[in-house]
User: Fold these one by one.
Assistant:
Number 1:
Amino acid sequence: MTRSGKTIGGRVELIGLSRDYGDVQAVRNVDVTVAPGEFLTILGASGSGKTTTLMMIAGFVTPSEGEIRINGESILGRPPDKRNLGVVFQSYALFPHMNVADNVGFPLRMRNLPKAEIKAQTEEALGIVHLEGYGTRRIDELSGGQQQRVALARALVFRPPVLLMDEPLGALDRKLREQMQLEIKRIQRSLGLTVVYVTHDQEEALILSDRIAIMHEGRMHQIGSPDAVYERPATAYVADFLGESNFLDGVLSESTGGTSTVRLAGGKTIGAQACNLPVGSPVQAMVRPESIHLTTAETAGPVNSLAAVIEESEYLGQSIRYLAAVGELRLTLREPRRDGQRRYAPGDAVTLSWPHRATVVFPRGGG
Amino acid sequence: MRAAATPQRTPHATLGHAILWSFVGLVCIFLVLPSLIVIPMSFNEDNLMRFPPKGFSFIWYETYFQRENWRSATINSFVIAVLATLLSTVIGTLAAYGLVRGRIIFRNVYIFIMLMPMIVPPIVAAVSMYGVFAPLNLVGTIWGMAIAHAVLALPFVIINVAAVLQRMDWRAEQAARSLGASAIRAFMLVTLPLIRPGIIAGAIFAFITSFDEVVVALFISGSNAVTLPVQMWSGLLFEINPVVASASTLLIVLSAVLLGATALLRKRSGA
């Protein structure tokens, strides 16, 4: 427990982790390894099992199956108070009958540290979250953002190897949330902490994380860096959940080493990223709205190009969103707003183009 | 937006107020006034319970504090009420914690059993307790009375404590655990302070329940653990003088103070 400098973050391993509630499988066979000092976000809708997973690490939910290791050592047999993990709860869970300093000093008191040591470390932790001099304040005198900082300081003060955070910014307004995201990232980097962070907010996940684990119906659908999960989603669910996407129904007509070709419902074919499905299987081709350009853009490599008619146009400030019709198909696309740029109106004939590599193929039907 | 929040004086609301206030008036006239009549009666000069009182004196208060049987009954009542309060508060708080928090089957059955003393007619409870206490030599003892009253007071503690437990944020206790507190330390340092208003309210109800109770006491108190209500009962039967009125007045004042304290407590904890 050094007073300054980095704590070495711990390695967290979840191995075949499952949790059943009667017939409901809240978490199914989850395997994740979080490297020391890594910021991993478990992203999912409510009911995806993300909080259950976090609570299993914290020790409040007992796994039905599987193993949890910190730095190679199983912690399953230990009660929550013997796991030495920092936990920040959604509602902060501060102790309203104690002042700020007593809240932050609580974990040190539980570890029977001498009074002077508790005082010094409490002040240091309050300094990390920029709340110097707030020690004697009552909890109900603090704003939501300040309460959040106290909760963070309390979870950090005993220098846990791993910090678990359950939607910690959910109750804050947008401005404050963005500010706290930067704070959390700064603290995590400067202390070298391993963080497992749970949220349903995809933007937050993209901003904060080294890697994102997308969870749905108890399963981990994909684990990867923000750009990997966004640009190369592993499943249609991930593509749909993260950002906006266009899904085009078709049949896989060709699949060679680096690329694949999809024949769309109207008979047109488009090129896409490689996939390992058999030729002839029904597929969905996914393309992000911001990948589609309205005029033939100078992009490297092969490009899909389809004649379309603008049906709707919406001015969004930073960008303009169009709805375009290609035969029976409808595609949403988004162009960044530029000065002097042509604004298309409903009824205008245009050409949509996007690179083959911006198209991802998923199996259709069945799952 | 603001205007919607202030109640408007519609004819409907006026009628509602009229009905409410007449009902409150009737309750006062038929329920409260008859009890308060003992207050002027306790200042009577002569030795008859009469209303309106004749003259004004403190003689029956003096009698109350001087007579050995009244004094010992008062002391017994306090001792028994304190013991019953301690027993029922500790047991009731733990029971409420288990009922609200625990993952137990037949939860509703347990709740029903624990709340039984409130539902069973006092005379039935008294007869059955006598049947159990007599062979155990608990009849006529302070502890026998304390246990009997603790049973009667238990539902009030459970209801009050369970109410605050249900409103409490369990995450605070989980946070304490995650920060290194054992289950017992988390309960003592975090849960207990947070549910204290409910425990105190339950304790006050338990005290009043014991202090006011007469039916079970008539059966269990014997001749060695006579409580104030039992003494008043025999006072009414054998010596019809205003000392009973003085005792009643003191009881009314005590109950009012205790209930006032509960109300204050509720207000302060924002419940």
Number 2:
Amino acid sequence: MKIDVIILWVVYFLILSVAGIMLGKIMAHIFKEKGVALEEKILKLIGIDAFTAMNWKEYLLAVIVFNFVGLILLQLILMTQHWHPFNPEARNGLSFWMAFNIATSFVTNTNWQNYGGESTLSYFSQMLGLTVQNFLSASTGMAVLLVFIRSLVKKEITFMGNFWSDLTRFTVRILLPLSFVFALFLISQGVPQTLNGSVSVKTLEGKELKVPVGPVASQIAIKMNGSNGGGFFNANAAHPFENPTPVSNFFQLITILLLPVSCVFMLIFMLPRKQEGYPVLGVMTVLLLLGVVLSYWAQVQTIPITHMSFREGVDSRFSLSECSLWSVATTAVSNGSVNCMHSSLSPLAQLVALFNMMTGEVIFGGVGAGLYGMLLYVLMTVFLAGLMVGRTPEYLGKKIESKEVIWASFALLAPGLFNLLFSAWALNFQLGLASLSHSGSHGLSEVLYAFSSTFGNNGSAFAGLNANTTFYNITTGFAMLFGRFAVIVPVLIIAGSLGPKKKSPIGPGTLKTDTLLFGVLLFSVILILGALTFFPVLVLGPVAEHLILNIF
Amino acid sequence: MKKLIYSSVGVVFLFTIVFGILYPISLVYMGKGLFKDKSVGSFIYDSKSGKMIGSELIGQNWINPRYFFGRPSINNYDPMNSGGSQYAPINPQLINEIKKNTKKYYQEGENIPDDLLLSSGSGLDPHISVEGAIFQISRIAKERKLNKDRIRMLVLSQVEKKTFGILGQDRINVLKLNQKLDQME
């Protein structure tokens, strides 16, 4: 292994840890802050109550209505593009199902793209539609996480915070300044930020060329920070206007993981006993690092058929290690941006990407969303461990009873089950098969990747699959909504049930949840659950591809 | 419920103004003030005519043998249609594509560098590897009737090194190199 790769990894994870700890501390402070903040006063001016704490039902209702309003607005914006200003290329309005797919995609923080941005969308849609939802979907995930944490940490609590307050504080104090600074940095690297229409040039060979530009930097900044991943251009972060230099690449790599890592540190700072958070942090880190090493190893092999490197789909300014690191980070976190084409990755690197998404995006995961997913696994582990020793399972002093376990199992299993059902449906249905660009095992991977990505709210793709068909627009649209809300609803129900419970004191019979043993248990539960659900289909997809490749 | 819908609409509306208009537009003006050329797309101008000849960041489909060629692109460097081939490593089309690209260089010798045969992820890769440029020197020298060593000097002067020794790859910007090549004559 080359020394520069090791240095890259060490520097990368060091910066990430330090920044994550600092930001986590700031976030814990922001949400603890009592009294009325400026944001809440502004909301009050337009008649919105951001002071009164809500119970879980009111909170859930607010989340759903708010997201629904955002969905409708985005759908309307996309369908009526031709009426709007900021449309120098005169883009037309989109069809209903295409707009539905994009709207669900951005509202659910998935940012799956069935369109090529440079040839489909107006600047108005990119700015007032997509950029806004990039902010709000990330904040929604954060708000849900906060309720879950409060229900676990505080004793006998029924009213768990105000959605508008949580949403606004996070958006205005964390996302906005981070994205603003980052956008300026990106412009300094060469990412365009302009309202001019595309530029016509005459090349040295005398050909006419039309180069699309636009307000790119502002969108890329929040795309990376908010674990969104929806690019301005079709090629996403492989596009030289989205990711012009190795330096912009490195900092975008950091921002993929920055807020998800900060969320875990925020949890640690919010816990009465910090060490309770270490198993969660540890398991996420180990899963991430295993993926990074395996993917890198696979990506630097030589292709036995052509005796060439895995450079297909990788731009010259990026190294193979940066490509594999990005592919692991972007699938572990539900970011979904790509700096090289995942369809052309080595089969085992494809496997890592698929597995990361199939865990339900809990290896740091999306902003907020990753950690509440992981906490569901924690509840599951506590329950299983409780069964083994025959005691009532407790986590952080709160009793885990049948209601919590039922909803946690639903949230952990249902998206996976539907993912397999949908993939099977698409593979047995002419409309599903017509979109494939590969036959055999890679064709299976294409479909599986599409549904894993949408059910996991990731958004990356094996872009060989033509996803802009009515069949895929409807099925993946449903997948994104289900993958998002089939987890958010159970999480808030569980929070509503855990919150009012007493905190039992730690006794000799308490299952310790701050130990290495518990970490190992948690790790095993994630692996076993993932493996039981997906092992057969992974063998038919990327594993088979790996074996075929090595016959030669 | 009425109150809830009002609040949702209000917050979405407020945030649309802040994040949909104020945020990007203020960045447009700050970008213009601080990084004028970069914020509009890093375009390059011809030193004589002063006309735009392309963007430093967007690769072009070079077909004249007097110029250095870029990497293969599945969409022939159409900037309005970015993206890669998406070929899986086991896809037979990938092998056909490589064979097709090999033909382009058949007169120039064996051991063609990988990046001249494999297409990029963006389809708009503005760079080639240093080996990829050095490999093409003899063709350029023949076509332009120039001394090989002079071209080699030019190529080596155009190398963009790995940043801090660990980020990215050594590479050469094809448009800038070709522009310099024209200026040499």
